Structures are given as C-alpha cells and as structure tokens.
Amino acid sequence: MLPEFKIAQLRHFVWVAELKGFHNAAEKACRTQPAISLSIRDLENKLGTKVFEKRNAKTTMTELTPFGKHFLPKAKELIAHHDSISQDMALLREHKAGHLRLASVPSIACRMLPELLSKFAENLPELHISFYDDNSEAVLRKVEKQQVDIGISSLPLGHEHADILFTPIWQDQIGVVCRNDHPLADAAEVHWKELRKRRLISNGTSRLLEDTEAEPLLGDSQFYISNMLSLTAMLEAGLGITTLPWFAFPQESTKLRFIPLSAPKVLRQIGIVQLKNKSLSPAAQALADFIIEQNSNEQESS
Known about the structure:
The protein is 40% helix and 20% strand. By secondary structure, the chain is α/β, with parallel strands linked by helices. Strands 1, 2, 3, 4, 5, 8, 9 and 10 form an eight-stranded mixed sheet that branches. A two-stranded parallel ribbon has the order 6-7. Helix 8 (216-220) links the parallel strand 6 (201-202) and strand 7 (223-224). The longest helix has 28 residues, at 66-93. The mean pLDDT is 89.
C-alpha cells in the first residue's frame, strides 16, 4: 500500500532539514521537540526508511540521509501543490473574482511592474494577485510546475524548457557598472578586454556573457554575489566592478555608473513565459494581453 502523507509531517521534515535541527523546527512549528521527533518517526515509518542520519552527540546539526536528500524536493513540491490548492479554494469560498499568480525577474518587478499592475488592477478590486520575484531559471520552473499562471523572464542561453511559450516584450543591453570615481566611469562605452585588468564581481546575470567573446570574464571574476542589495553595496564600497543588464542597474544609487558594453554588444530579451498547449485563466490572459498592449502603445508613442 502506498504511504499517505500528512502535510504537517512534510512541513516538519522540511523545517528540520532546512533549519538543521529538531529544536529549531519545533520553535518554527510552535510545538515541542518530542512532538516533532514523533512526527518525523511516523513519517519514516510510512516511508520505510530513515530520512535523517543518526544524531551525533558532539553536534546539534541534523543531516539528511541520501534518501532524505532525494525526498526533500519532493516534499517541498507536495507542500507547494497543497498550499496552492488550499489558497485557490479559500478565495473561491470568500467569493473572490479570481486568483492570479505571477512570477517575474527582479529587474522587471522593480522597473516595470509597479505601474503596470497598478493600472491593470485599478478596475478589478476583487482580483487577488500573488506575486513572486526570482531569477529567470526559478521563474521558468514555477511556470513549468504550474506554481504560477505566467512568468516574466528571459530565456537562458540554450535553455531546455521545451514546454515554454515565450512572447518577447522588452529588450535591454548589458553594460559595466562601477563607482562614479572609477577609471572607467567617464567612458562612453567599454570593450570587454578592458575589464580583464579590473577586479570583477560576477552575479546571477553574468551567464548572459556565455558563448560570447566576453565569456573569459566569467573565469576572471574574483567574487560572486547573488543578491542585488548586497551587490549594490559592494559596488558602492569600491570592491570591484560588474556587468548588469540596463533594467537591473540600481538607478536609485547616486554612486554608481552604467557604461554600455560595446564589444560584444549583448542584448537581453525579456518577455511573458507560459506553458504551451495550456489555456491561461481569464485573469492571467487578461494580464498578458494588457502587458502586450501597453508595450505596443509605448513603442508607437516613442
């Protein structure tokens, strides 16, 4: 007989794994530590094997077994699917007009979506919108797993997302970002070879340089910083320079400068991503049409 999982047990398992201990998981769950231990033991009985290694008295850290490592993403997927259905049903029970789930890369989330969503939702007070921001790969995964209705992202070079339909909307150029007092700050544009003499910081968008003549820069980078706030702080402190798409450039910073990369000239296409051969909900289709219409109107007026 197949095991029947309890969502609470799955949550306890994920929390113990992510927080590296039963005590921390018990605090998060507002339960006692013995209760969490019992919950995990019952889950292991259902699975027929251990998910955590035997605890070491010399350390408070809790480690997953090989089976537990394999089961962790599956447990997270089950929880996400459960929560998505529960949320949808709760909204229907509350007589909401609809629920729209949207994911976007941070650059568009900060630069474009505030005004777009404000206009779109202006006459839809009963529409509930859940919004998530993440990198392009994560946005695509959310669309593929149907955790969101539509996404807004670029398609990674050589992507393997055969089930994704991509509608291009925006385009921006890759440039160099440095402090205002950096030797490159007064340049009108920069050749990639000029950057090999500098201390480089790579980030989540650096992969856009792959398969271009500037790809050697990826190996030259001394630092990698994934978070945009941290990256901005390090750049402002003079730790080094980086490459970013124009939409990702922190325009609120008064200490940084964006210089277009002239050779190679690398352009990034950003657009709406959705599953092929699957109809969108009325709300999601309305938003997609609205974004396309607004972008078309802007191009005609410019």
